[in-house]
C-alpha cells in the first residue's frame, strides 16, 4: 500500500521540480557573483521510491511533506576543502538556516568518526527564489544544500555505492581500512590546498622576481603569461606587428598559448627568464628581421587571426634558434604550436630555413630541407 505522503509528493512533483530549478539557479548566481571557483553545482529531486524507503525506515517521524526537508537538494562541489568553508559562509549570509536539521561546519568530529562528509544545510526558501504562495496549498518551505570538495564527494559516492550507511553496518575487518582511507583523503585534500596556495603565491610574486632576479625564474606557462604583457616581449611583439602593418592582438583568446611557447623555448634550450631576456636583447635586430621576412611568406598561418598574436617574437626567436642549431628540428616547434592542418609541415619548414639563410647569408644548403 502506498504511503499517503508518497502519493501527495507524486501529485506535487512538478512543483518541487520547479523549486529545484529555482534553487539551483539561485545558488549558481550567488557563487558566481561572489567570484568563487566551483567545480560544479547540481540540483536533485528526491525519487518517490527513496521517499517511501525513508518513511519505512523512520515510521511516525514525518507527518507532512513539510517535515521532509530533503525532497529538493542542491549540491555544490568545490575544488578544495577550504572552498567548502567559503561557500558555507556565503550561504549563511543569504539564507535562513534550519540548524536543527543541518550539519554545522564548525562541529568537530571524533578522530575515529566513520565517513568523510561535507556540509549539509537545510535552508528556508529565500525571497529571491520564486514563491509558490497563492498558486498551491502549503508551498514548500525548505530545501537542502550540500557542500563538498571533490575528494569528499568521491568518498561519499563510493561509500554510498558500497552500501554502508553507518559504522555498525561495516564489518570490523573493513572498518580499519575505511579509517585509513579517510585519513589519506584528508591528507590529499590538504596537499591540494597547499599546492593551490603555492601556485597563487608564485603568481603574486612573479612580477617582482622577474624584475629583480630573472635568472631564478623558470620558463613555464605562468612566467610566459606574465612576459607577454610587459617589456621587452610586448615591445618586440609591437615592433613585429608594426613591420607587418597589422595590429597586435593583445586580447587574443588562447589560454594554452603560454604553455605552448614555454614548451618550444625549452626545446631550443631556453629555460630561465633571465636567459630569455638576455637573448632577446642581444639578438633583437636579427629576430625582428627574421620575423618580418618569414611571416609574409606564411600568411595562411597567422593572417586569418587579423594581426600578430602575443608572443609572436618568442615563436620567431625559437625558430631562429632551431635553425641555428643543426641538431634541432623546426618540425618540433611547428608541432608544439599546433599548426598542423594550416599548411603542410614541409612548406613551413622550408620557409623557415630559407628565411634563416637569407637573414644570415648562409650559402650552404641546409640538409633539413624537404
UniProtKB/TrEMBL annotation:
InterPro entries named among the record's database cross-references: NT_sf, RelA_SpoT
Lineage: Bacteria, Thermotogati, Deinococcota, Deinococci, Deinococcales
Domain RelA/SpoT, residue spans: 43-170
PANTHER family per record: GTP PYROPHOSPHATASE-RELATED, RELA_SPOT DOMAIN-CONTAINING PROTEIN
One Pfam family it belongs to: RelA_SpoT
Protein name: GTP pyrophosphokinase
Chain segments annotated as transmembrane: none
